[in-house]
Amino acid sequence: MVFKIFVTVKLTYTHEGKVIPTSIVWINDDGSRDEFGVEVLGEDNRASTKAGGVGKRYRIGVMGKERYHETYLFYDVIDRLWYVENKNAPDMGGPPY
Q1: For residue 13, what are the CA distances in angstroms to 20, 49, 57?
Q2: Model pTM?
Q3: What is the pLDDT along the chain (97 residues), one digit of tens a residue?
C-alpha cells in the first residue's frame, strides 16, 4: 500500500504564470521542520495511480542531507494539496525520501 504524505511546498511563479516547486518543507513528528531543495526534472498532468488523486505530477530531484534522490511530487487539483508517495506507514517518522 502507498500513502500520501502531505508536504508544504515553496514555489516560484514565472512571469508567464508557470509554477515551479523550489523546496519541500517536511514537518517531523516532534514538530521540527526540515527543508529540502528540489530540482524539477519533468512535469505532466497525471493521476497518482498508487495513492489516488488527480492533478499535476512533477518528477523531482531532492537534495537531502546525505544524498540526492529522485521521486515524484503531486499537486492534487481537487483537494489543492501537495504530497509525495510513501510505501511506509505515515507514522514511521522522517521524510519519505
Answers
A1: 6, 27, 17
A2: 0.77
A3: 777 888 999 999 999 999 999 999 988 888 888 899 999 999 998 766 666 667 899 999 987 666 778 888 999 888 899 998 876 655 545 555 4
